[in-house]
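OP here, attaching both records as promised.
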Amino acid sequence: MACGSSASILGRKGLSFKKLLLLAWLLIKDKETLKKLWHRPGLTLAISISSCLGSIGWFSAMSLTAVPYVKTLGQVEVFFMMLISSLWLKQRVKVKDMGGLVLIALAAVLVLWG
């Protein structure tokens, strides 16, 4: 795709609009978070880069294999995030969360089995 193609220009304008919309939302609703982001530029940049790389990974995975498998992997990711938050961050797991994790595991098995 050429750098000046209409899809490229539309994509850049869409991203710029999203940035402005998020900035406006933070200015109106959560100025404290915006201040924290401004005072920690290195951390903000590291998180932004890792998020970008994660998105590239998801898009690449969806182009290489069937989307249900990729989405199932995304659901299993929630399980591991809950595990890390309970073991490492010492957060309590609620009964509703445990029920959700059971449903995620069941859905993953059904996708892989079916």
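Record two, same layout:
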Amino acid sequence: MTEEKIKNYEIILENQNQLLDHMKIAQAKLRKAVMEKNWKDLTVVISEINLFSDSFQQMDKARDEIQVLMSADELHPYVQKLMALRNKLSACKIENKALADYLTIARGFIDGVINTALPSSRAKVYTRTGTIMQKKPESVVLSTLM
């Protein structure tokens, strides 16, 4: 493996590590925006997280391409960095899952309140097996002008 490829591998690992640090900060902002119901900040933070995610995926693909070409001896010095990277990635995934679960529960609650308060007069929709399919809201944002 050439020195240039190894140097690129080191740079990619460091960039991914820094990106996950920024992602963790953005997730904290996201959680705060959700809990405070600050929808403007929420949309900004979601866009930021999506950009971080896209960048991470591109870097991960480039790192994998280089890593496939490296021997076990060449990878050995980077094992600790890879483990730290995987730990940070796992923590980010857990936080994302927790936020997604919270939003799913909130969406279900709001759906129940809306269906109870404003029953729909639309025709019922059935699944292939013949059971009634309930319409689900696409968003948890409600207009206060109603």
